[in-house]
Design brief:
The chain is of the alpha/beta class. It has six helices and eleven strands. β9, α3 and β10 (about 160) form a beta-alpha-beta unit. α2 packs across α5 (about 205-215). Belongs to the PSMG2 family. One of its GO terms (biological process) is proteasome assembly. It comes from Manihot esculenta (Cassava). Pfam families: PAC2.
Amino acid sequence: MEFVIEQGKQLHQDCSTLLLPALSIGNVGQLAVDLLVSSTRAERIGYLDDPYILPCVGNNAYGPISCGDLALPLEAYDSPANALTLVQQRSPVVQGMMIEFAKNLADFAVASGKKHIVVLSGLDFGRWQRIDMSSGLQTYYLSSTNSDGTDEYCEQLGWKRLQEYNPAQRSWKYLSALAEGNPLEENRLPFEDELEEEDYYPSLPFAALFSCFKAKGLKVTCLLCYCSEGDNIPDAFHLAEAACKLLRLSPENFHGDEGSKWLIPFSWKTVYGPPPDMSIF
């Protein structure tokens, strides 16, 4: 993976936290990163070129008008005021190469001096085992702070550790071995057989990112919420708010739209495509 800095820009050494999405159902992680990039008024400092991510190109997602400033698949933004670097991913990883991609991102994080990695992702609502909507959307987490995935501060915030994380389970062990670069034969998954229910979560992108960042000795926290495909903007606000709580950021200082704390990305105005041509009616 090559990091290409834009002309006249630089990585800020005081941005010790890296926040990025894991591609998932509803693109909730990507939408939340969009919201944070826009609201913190983070500056694009460059892009990451990786052989394992599919190429794509689009228009600038944050400008007030369609100015023709190109957006690339993997871009880096710095918000020095919040000591935060944000990476936005806009295209999927080549099939079967998620671990290699995650290793490359972990190498970038180490090389750029990051200390804490925050991964945002949605989870399939259809697989939620113990549904509790009594207090609205729930935040789940997974942390490298302790071996069982728990973190005291996350618990204080009222979040629940992802129950499906079990470092002793075969898929999580296999994933950890791959991330460390020493897969053991006895840990090899029987891909010829049907995978069990407990093998599902370790197969998701957030799990690969978690394992690879952890293998590099970095502190990593995954923030997760269950959702369904559709209008996932409320889920994005939920994850963005959770990220701010974790990093002790105050959205009230973001100076968003019309007195709001959040600055809605310009691209969200056409998230479901442009409005119809009214002349057809």
